[in-house]
Amino acid sequence: MELDYDVVPLERLIKDLEKNDLQSKLNLFQCPKEKDLEEFLHYKAIEYDLIGYGKTYLILDKKEIENDVIKIIAFYTIGQKSIDISNLSQKKKRKVIGGRIPGRDGLKSMACFLIGQLGRSGEYTHDQLLGGTLLKECFSTIETARKIIGGNLIFLECRPKMYGLFYEKHGFKKFSEELSEDGLFQLYRKIS
Questions:
Q1: How far apart are CA 101 and CA 187, in angstroms?
Q2: Which pTM does this prediction carry?
Q3: What is the tens place of the pLDDT at every residue in 26-54?
Q4: Which of 30, 35, 89, 139 has its CA 20 to 30 A from that of 122?
Q5: Phi, psi (5° rounding) for residue 95?
Q6: How many CB atoms are located within 10 Å of the residue 21 CB?
Q7: CA distance 30 to 124
Q8: DSSP tag of 129
Q9: How many CB atoms lie within 10 A of CB 172?
Q10: Distances (CA, A) of 16 to 5, 8, 39, 76
Q11: What letter would DSSP give residue 3?
Q12: Helix (H), strand (E) at residue 43
């Protein structure tokens, strides 16, 4: 059964807590299977948030919040990215960005929402917070931004095995069949 949780912007905690106190709470997040998630939250999340490079949202255990404890179940980070579409065929451009974008055939790049980080703590199981639930919260945050600034594309990178296990089931498609320099698939999903 899924736990009750609250989604809390890191920005709010930055304003409410001393930096060292907040950092010590973020440092409790452990994700042995995805060390890069752990390292992001430990070393980069606050700075990214402060400079506006990406905004991080923490999924906190509601029961622990009632006891004044910040226990991070999971987190995600949303940003913006410009993707190079200059080498895509016209057919692939239509698939990726849609058929009704004005001047589509002449576009060299496309702005999109970036899911930069997305993951659950190793202390919690799939049953306590489904990956689909975490992604749903991420989409909800993107939808709020989209209502203000527009946009119709979400972009992310993932390890090859995660594509078939998770992201493909949630409507993501491969931007390219080739892996990035980091050995990751680049994925996209249209919003509208």
A1: 20
A2: 0.93
A3: 999 999 989 999 999 999 999 999 999 99
A4: 139
A5: -65, -45
A6: 11
A7: 10
A8: S
A9: 23
A10: 19, 12, 23, 20
A11: P
A12: helix 35-43
* Token digits of residue 35: 């060390």
Residue with tokens 């049953």: 127
Q: Determine the Cα–Cα distance for residues 180 and 63; give it in Å rounded to an integer.
A: 40
- For the chain, what percent of residues have pLDDT higher than 70? 98
Q: How far apart are the first and last CA of the chain?
A: 31
Pick from 3, 139, 18, 166: nearest CA to 73: 3
Q: What is the predicted pLDDT for the residue at 66?
A: 86
Q: State the sign of the Cα–Cα–Cα–Cα dihedral 24, 31, 131, 183.
A: positive
d(CA 78, CA 94): 25
DSSP H or E run through 12: helix 10-16
Cβ burial 177-191 (10 Å sphere, 16+ → b, else e): eeeeeeeebbbbbeb
DSSP 27-42: TT---TT-HHHHHHHH
Instruction: Measure Cα distances from 152 to 36, 66, 77, 116 in Å.
Output: 28, 37, 18, 17
Please tell me what DSSP assigns to residue 87.
T
Name the residue with tokens 């997305």. 118
